[in-house]
Amino acid sequence: MDGQTWERMWGHVERVHPDGGAVAAAIRSAARLARPSVPPVPNYKLSMSIPEWLQAIQTYMKMLQYLTNGQPSVERFPISFKTHFSGNYFHHVVLGIYCNGRYGSLGMSRRSDLMDKPLTYRTLSDLIFEFEDSYKKYLHSVKKVKIGLYVPHEPHSFQPIEWKQLVLNVSKMMRTEVRKELEKFARDMRMKILKPSSAHSPMKERSRGKSLSPRRRQASPQRRACRRDKSPAVVDKKGDLATLNEVGYQLRI
After folding, report:
1. What's the Cα-to-Cα distance from 167 to each of 25, 129, 199, 234, 240, rounded to whole Å?
2. What whole-number distance in Å separates Cα of residue 61 and Cα of residue 53?
3. Count H helices, E strands: the chain?
4. C-alpha 134, offset from chain centre
5. Nearest-5° angle of CA 91, CA 250, CA 140?
6. What is the rounded (10 degree) CA torsion for 189, 194, 199, 200?
7. How far is residue 167's CA from residue 181's CA, in Å, rounded to a whole number?
8. Block mean pLDDT (10 aa), the chain, length 253
């Protein structure tokens, strides 16, 4: 790599990193840098029992869970899809990623185009529509899309993961409507004005671009609870989060 390209790369780091030039100077002036740890992939042996193999997989997952936690510029948030195929409903969750103005995802699936997506999508709606188009290839129709808030980077945080801050009944909405709601939600997330349901923040009550004025009478609890939900059903967020906590879906990855 030539010197000019090398300096341009460091200049880019100074522009996009939250700590600016300080982090670049600290790295470049360091006499010795620790090599990032990469956990070894578990190898299955014929002598291993099924419980031993499962334990090896679990240990590997625990070692992986901090891969993005130490990178504050990488924001993570859950995205879940409810699809319909051949009379049955299916649910799938991926981890949405936002970094340097681009969206992507991490996940697992039997289909290569229904899990990880590269950080190349300019908007959140572009990423969601890409998933929707991928589902169509397998004759799945997307019924609902649920998007949560950014997952905290603090590994010991007691804040529960917000799995469905925004619920869109996409099967009953035009794409223009879906795009409008997604981009409004993505903008609010980037500005860090959306709060978990446990915080009871008035910003969470925003609907169709209008925030509640402090001079206006507050809506009833029932209406307030479902305002972000674009589907007819009212969602009990607290009960749902409690269920998720019981099964242990609180990994900070």
Report:
1. 43, 15, 19, 11, 14
2. 13
3. 7, 6
4. 19
5. 10
6. -160
7. 10
8. 85 82 85 76 86 84 71 90 96 93 90 91 97 96 96 80 93 96 94 65 40 46 48 47 46 47
